[in-house]
Specification:
The complex is a heterodimer of chains A (89) and B (188). By secondary structure, chain A is mainly alpha-helical. Chain A is built from 3 helices and no strands. Chain B is built from 5 helices and no strands. The chains are: A mainly alpha (89), B mainly alpha (188). At the A-B interface, α1, α2 and α3 of A face α1, α2, α3 and α5 of B.
């Protein structure tokens, strides 16, 4: 087999091999869910909290006060409850 | 010396350095294989593992391990998983609203400035965008228990909760940081 044929054959093989890998990877469909399937199990759902009214800002708004009021709540209690739930395992 | 066209007729052609055709071909094949390796590895990198692949792999590992657990433990793990997802969703929604308000406050401030304090506003906007993206990234996260064995189920669950706590708190800290920068800007 001549040099040119070897090089050409190798290049074609590489292209095919590479395409197969890329197509295989891009064709993957995966699980994108926020929770594991529960089947027939009843998971207690808490009362949904009402969505807060969005703040309306205009030229008369006190931007300093509005910014100060934005401090997020402390999430410690959430973690305590989760750990308590884990403690029941 | 043989030419390309008649080399097949003269298999024992020897080149100027004394190598036979077979030796030349062998050497050529080794060079080709090395080149192939150099070409294939970037292609493999291009077809790299995605975050979805990682989640799917974790999910598969979890399902393989939990299948041998008791029904009670399976149920409680599922409930805990749902609780973590719910807390993550509620808190990231809250942080998301916070970030939207911060952006609106900065827009209002910018309107009042009439093209003054451009650099200060640009800096604040950078940190608001950074925090906003961190919140979005946290909201998309999926927490799957990394199980060792059924006897250590509590430890495994607490370990996942610790990771969740650390990551959600990190997103919260970024929101607070951007808030502080915004406060500095609007109080000037």
């Amino acid at each position: 087999m001549s040099w040119q044929k070897i090089v050409l054959f190798s290049a074609v093989l590489t292209l095919i091999f590479g395409l197969v890998i890329i197509v295989n990877k891009s064709g993957n469909s995966g699980i994108v869910s926020t929770s594991i399937k529960s089947g027939n199990l009843q998971t207690p759902s808490p009362t949904p909290s009402p969505t807060p009214t969005p703040i309306v800002l205009n030229e008369n708004s006190n931007l300093e006060t509005e910014t100060e009021n934005l401090t997020p709540e402390d999430f410690s209690n959430d973690y305590k409850l989760l750990k308590a739930e884990a403690g029941k395992l | 010396m043989g030419t390309i066209s008649n080399i097949a007729l003269h298999p024992r052609v020897i080149d100027s350095e004394g190598r036979t055709l077979r030796a030349q071909t062998r050497r050529g094949a080794i060079v080709i294989m090395m080149l192939l390796g150099l070409i294939v590895s970037p292609i493999s990198v291009l077809a790299r593992v995605t975050p979805e692949d990682i989640v799917n792999a974790q999910q598969a590992t979890y399902q393989k391990k939990v299948v041998n657990y008791s029904v009670d433990h399976k149920q409680k793990l599922e409930q805990l998983s749902a609780s973590i997802a719910r807390v993550n969703k509620n808190r990231t929604n809250e942080l998301e609203r916070n970030m939207e308000t911060q952006a609106a406050i900065l827009d209002q401030y910018e309107k009042r400035q009439n093209d003054k304090n451009d650099e200060v506003i640009k800096n604040a906007r950078y940190w608001i965008t950074y925090a906003h993206e961190a919140v979005a990234y946290q909201a998309a996260k999926i927490y799957i228990f990394d199980l060792s064995n059924e006897k250590n189920i509590q430890g495994d669950a607490l370990s996942t909760i610790s990771i969740f706590q650390s990551e959600l708190n990190s997103a919260r800290s970024k929101v607070i940081k951007s808030q502080n920068i915004l406060l500095e800007v609007v109080t000037k």
